[in-house]
Amino acid sequence: MRLINISKYDHTSMVLGKPIYDSRKRILLAAGRTIDPKIVKRLENMGIDFIFVEDEISKGISIDDMLDMPTWTDAIQVVKSFYEHAINNKTPNIESIQQIAGKLLKEVKHRPTLVLIPAGTMTKELQPYAHAVNVTILALLTGKRMRYTDTKQRDLAIGTLLHDIGKSIEEDYDKHPEVGFQFLRNISQISIVSSHIAYQHHETFDGKGFPRQISGKDFLEVAQICGIANRYDNLVTKDKIPPHDAMEAIMATSDSGYAYNIVTAFSQSVATYPPGTKVLINNSEPAIVTQINKHLQRPVVKILSSEEEIDLVENSTYMIKPIDVLNGE
Ligand SMILES: [Fe+2]
Ligand SMILES: [Fe+2]
């Protein structure tokens, strides 16, 4: 299976690899079938940018380290319902957000890593909530690397799932961290740490962030983790920067954006070449990532012309470069 830009879908050689859901969690298209070109247009109009497909070159590649679809769509629905309650100033369902946080925490705990399902595989309407879930997964992977306890991971997860809740209450973007904080701190079941994640997620280590320009020790570690994960996901999803370039941009913010140890933990937790990614080896050989290794930035690849598999950890001089999925490859 591999992920492609929907504009590159070819109904003569590809079938759908994972189901496509509508905003009410109903299956629109089941896995295993071909998609009629007219339906492809409809999906594009619904704001779906990416789909998982099976074709000749993706044969034999399974993306094991990915959240299963029901868990992913459940998490998105729960976040959506929580954010919508906030719009109407109603009391949201705390229990379900705690449950989802626990579920994500468990998924991260028992796997070597977790590959994100891009928000762009969902309809436009669901993408802000998919963003919140993905940022949470990235944050939990980082927390795990930093040997956080379950209690700390839970606070991190809840704060990160709700980091942008201020956006559904307040139109002024600059105010969303504080408005979110004020909303969350009035909910007794939500820890003050989680509320502060929403408050601080746009601050930076050098005091040039917003809304309060806090810096150094005042900038909570958990909020820094949410901040890094949020920035990375925005670079990849909104700015359409390839994951490994986004990772380099994040690493360049070490000490200015976020503390060095947190940036390091983040870079050691996130796989920037998910299985199924088309890449160029040594600037000339098209290949496809087949497996993630211990080293998250040096996967196992299969050369397309010869079908030879190469472990980039053992071949440390080989260069890897993505053929940008977002540019339509
Ligand atoms: Fe935000
Ligand atoms: Fe965000």
From TrEMBL:
Q: Which residues form the signal peptide?
A: none
Tell me which domain of life the UniProt entry assigns to the organism this sequence originates from.
Bacteria
User: Known Gene3D superfamilies for this protein?
Assistant: Hypothetical protein af1432
Q: Which residues form the HD-GYP domain?
A: 79-286
Q: Name one Pfam family in it.
A: HD_5
What's the protein here called?
Answer: C-di-GMP phosphodiesterase
* Organism listed in the record: Paraliobacillus quinghaiensis
Q: What is the lineage of its organism?
A: Bacteria, Bacillati, Bacillota, Bacilli, Bacillales
